[in-house]
Amino acid sequence: MLRPSTSRQDSRKKSFKKSADAEESRRKREDQMIAIRKEKREEAMAKKRINVGASGGSEINPNVFNDASDSTAMTHEQRTNAKVRFVRLLHRLKER
Q: Which residue range(s) make up the domain with 31?
């Protein structure tokens, strides 16, 4: 059987469409997946920010304990309310 010479085979292979390098293709896929994950994470954070802003972001008040002029004169109920508001404030800040 006649076989073409190796140099002729090499020249024919070079004339065909170049195949993608497996390593390069894998790297591109990984980069695309990372970009997609980043976009999804950013969208989720944006939605979370919108929900926090609409549902009570204005409730965060730095003067949460200034209801009474003298903190020693606070009643038990006022102290309890202040503690609850403080815990809610911490929880909201922790979610961000």
A: 23-59+74-96
